[in-house]
Specification:
The protein is an all-alpha fold and 237 residues long. The chain contains 9 helices and no strands. The radius of gyration is 20 Å and the shape is globular.
């Protein structure tokens, strides 16, 4: 597990993944900016206050702090959406560099990839908005934030990596069989989400980590790559 994390971190900042990392970070920043603008516009539209300087100043400060905390809690959801978009690109590079003699995984059909990305985004967004509502409960919200995202990230990133070699049903079954190990892996990498700016690497780092972790946790299915692709395509609808 630790070896997989070290390999993934090294590759994330290496020339192998640097281009994908920069693109994913740029997209993540744009999405966060769009969410911040939307939140600020919503507050300006729905909050009507008297025209007193001290009230406007106080509201501006509170709004600014709210946006900072809001963006922090929205980062995992943004990361999940970006990860879905760049998963196959990252996985292909990692597999080619680290496992050149093994069969390559198969990219997900576009419809399925979009579905899983949006589903993952929705679930993570809901969980983190719940954690945000508990902001006034000291300590509890951070624990929920950390544990919940460790579970969600480990579950979804692992299944996405596994589905390059397995059907969704097989990937889910494998994840359930190794649920404890996969959750511990999520606890290992989730601290990245707690560090501003650094958390922008999560889509690439998390994907690379789960590619390595999946390959080391279980042997690849005993079928040729072409047959695996046919099975995946056959269950895409």
């Amino acid at each position: 597990m630790f070896a997989a994390a070290i390999d993934a971190l090294r590759q994330t900042f290496s020339p192998l993944l640097r281009g994908v990392l920069l693109k994913s970070m740029a997209l993540g920043l744009l999405l966060l900016l769009a969410l911040a603008v939307a939140l600020e516009a919503a507050l300006a539209h729905y909050v009507d206050v008297p025209s007193y300087p001290w009230v406007e100043t106080t509201l501006a400060v509170v709004t600014g702090l709210g946006l900072v905390f809001g963006i922090f809690y929205l980062m995992p959801a943004v990361s999940s959406l970006v990860a879905g978009l760049f998963l196959d690109d990252v996985a292909e590079r990692v597999e080619a560099a680290s496992y050149p003699d093994d069969p390559r995984g198969q990219p997900q059909p576009v419809v399925r990839a979009v579905f899983y990305s949006l589903r993952f985004f929705g679930v993570v967004l809901l969980v983190n908005l719940t954690a945000l509502l508990l902001l006034l409960v000291p300590g509890v919200n951070l624990i929920i934030f950390y544990v919940a995202n460790a579970y969600l990230i480990s579950r979804e990133y692992f299944e996405l990596a596994a589905m390059r070699y397995r059907t969704p049903q097989e990937a889910r079954q494998l994840r359930q069989t190794h649920a404890v190990s996969i959750f511990l892996a999520g606890l290992l990498i989730s601290p990245v989400l707690l560090v501003p700016i650094l958390n922008l690497i999560m889509p690439v780092f998390g994907t690379a980590f789960m590619v390595h972790f999946h390959r080391r946790l279980a042997p690849l299915p005993d079928r040729p790559a072409g047959d695996g692709a046919a099975m995946i395509e056959g269950r895409a609808v």
